[in-house]
Amino acid sequence: MNARIEDYALIGDLETAAMVGRDGSIDWLCLPRFDSPACFAALLGTADNGFWRLAPLGAGACARRAYRQDTLIVDTHWDCPAGSVRVTDFMPPRAGLPCVVRIVEGLSGAVPLRSDLRPRFNQGRVMPWVRAEEHCTVAVAGPDSLWLSADGPMEIRPTAPAPVPEARGSGSGSLDFTVAAGRRLTLQLVWAPSHLTEPPEPLRVPAETALKATGDFWRRWAARCRYQGPWREAVTRSLITLKALTYAPTGGIVAAPTTSLPECVGGARNWDHRYCWLRDSTLTLSALLRGGYRDEATAWLDWLVRAVAGDPADLQAVYGVEGQRRLPETEAPWLAGYEGSRPVRFGNAAAHQLQLDVYGEVLDTLWLSLRAGIPLPPRLWSLVESLLRHLCDHWREPDQGLWEVRGAGRQFVHSKVMVWVAADRALRMGEMLGRNGSAAQWRALRDAVHREVCRAGWDAGRRTFVRSYGSPALDASALLIPKVGFLPAADARVRDTVRAMRDLDHHGFLRRYAHDVDGTCGADGMPGPEGTVVACSLWYADALAATGRLGQARETFARVLDIRNDVGLLAEQWDPESRRQLGNAPAAFSHIALVETAFALQEAGGRAAFPRDVSPVLTPRAGPP
């Protein structure tokens, strides 16, 4: 039985990340980077797909756990009949090869523990050969090797799991040991290319040295946070999470460190989010700049500019961490899926969809960077011109939109709004840079899009902007209309749209769009239901604050804070009926939105509000506990 998604904490080294459960098991880890094949994949299958558990013998979930303040170091505590013990898990920020460090400290009594290591390379499929070296155990298969070392005496016992395809040898091992009060023992696991024969360098670094350096790194980074409002802890944790999802060599930020955690348990809505989405770019840059992280914002911008270079017709919604374009989507039939949610997918076919909103996201990011004084590449203006030339010719085409529908393209209102953003930001940049050669054409494009959206995207009967032209269906992305400046928050159409969003209410949280009568979401080309999208509830809080309903906005924000897990992490979605996190986790989209909303509420509290709107806010309805 898989642990709940919210049972996992995140540790990482700015090039990859591991998911550590409340039972002390690392059930997901891709090495050496986020989009590499997983060597621990039990999260998406069974124990035979790879894990590393370190816990007291016979123990289940821990008594409590927490991140050390302002770090990505997690302390997990167990209280057992024989005593109490703490396991400290972390990954030192990468200076060479990736390393997972696990420090066991006896707090009382004498506690027997076991380390069960079962690596399965190539997405949980390949069982390695295991050999003993002096002070190390080494697991090798193909191009990969894992080196496990311990700094104290242990009894090493081989284990023999059920075979899996392509298996050779036992490929597993258990270490039994006892830790008394006041004693410490450290285990370190290092990945290295399999052709290296000497113990890798991270094993030579004392664990205490690595622990101090890692703690100092994260605390220094967190100390730069400029947010000083009432939700500082939540904002800081979200910013640390975004930093942990950053691939430091290029500055790219992955949407999540996981793949195929389901949007509906048992269903097929399972996607690979270990890549970088352009539509996250503006909000990411805004969140980092607001938080005081200019260097990270600059690195993200540099990644963006490199990734989108080339023919504007080839602009993709999503790229790899190094800007690679080919992300072929495949399925993994050897993995049973999280709680039977199949298929498990690697790669993402959304890379080849037409998503017109991406053009607006890119131009908005460049405009925001220019306003913030971030130096832009000298070739930037030619990129702006080529993107706008392409949009002038293609903006009327249907696309797959913000939500990357797998069905036929449509005239999505949000996509058209973002085309307007692209033209608007290009004009603003031209004015700032003194480059107005195409201003008349871009102004004509901006005006034409605005007229069309206000005519074809507005439902006069329901008094709301809708999901797509000719459809009465709502879409939470309409809440972004005032945020991007398409219409002011005081406009009656915006205020009516915010009121209409109550129709997307699901037990106090917002769906991204309406479900069918039977609870499914056939409108997006996929079968089965899904949860509520965390970011949509946060957009709703933003819109409430912008339209003068600050108290209700704070209530909505508080509900989102309440669904974070015990260490402050959010997945992509939330099911308010089963009270479970759903989708890939932790989700950058959710944490970016949290940071943005915290700043928006702080700013709204300091300015005069519009006349109070007395229409009801989303309120939780009775549901299962």
Summarize the structure.
This protein has 625 residues and is of the alpha+beta class. The protein is built from 13 helices and 28 strands. The chain starts with 7 loop residues before the first strand and ends in a 21-residue tail after the last helix.
Features:
625 residues, alpha+beta, 15-stranded antiparallel sheet, three-stranded antiparallel sheet, 13 helices, 28 strands, 29% helix, 21% strand, globular, disordered C terminus
What would your notes on this structure say?
The chain has 625 residues and is α+β, with helices and mostly antiparallel strands. The chain is built from 13 helices and 28 strands. The strands form seven sheets. The chain has a 15-stranded antiparallel sheet that branches. A three-stranded antiparallel sheet has the order 26-27-28. A hairpin with a 4-residue loop joins strand 1 (8-12) and strand 2. The radius of gyration is 25 Å and the shape is globular. Mean pLDDT is 91; it is low at 158-169, 608-617 and 619-625.
Fold blueprint:
Layout: E1 8-12, E2 17-21, E3 25-30, E4 38-40, E5 51-56, E6 64-67, E7 74-80, E8 83-90, E9 99-118, H1 121-124, E10 129-133, E11 136-141, E12 144-150, E13 155-158, E14 173-180, E15 184-193, H2 207-223, H3 232-244, E16 246-247, E17 252-253, E18 276-277, H4 281-291, H5 294-308, E19 318-319, E20 330-331, E21 345-346, H6 357-371, H7 380-394, H8 413-433, H9 439-456, E22 458-459, E23 464-465, H10 492-500, E24 505-506, E25 509-510, E26 532-533, H11 534-546, H12 550-562, E27 573-575, E28 580-582, H13 588-604
Antiparallel strand pairs: 1-2, 2-3, 3-4, 3-5, 5-9, 6-7, 7-8, 8-9, 9-14, 9-15, 10-11, 11-12, 12-15, 13-14, 16-17, 18-19, 20-21, 22-23, 24-25, 26-27, 27-28
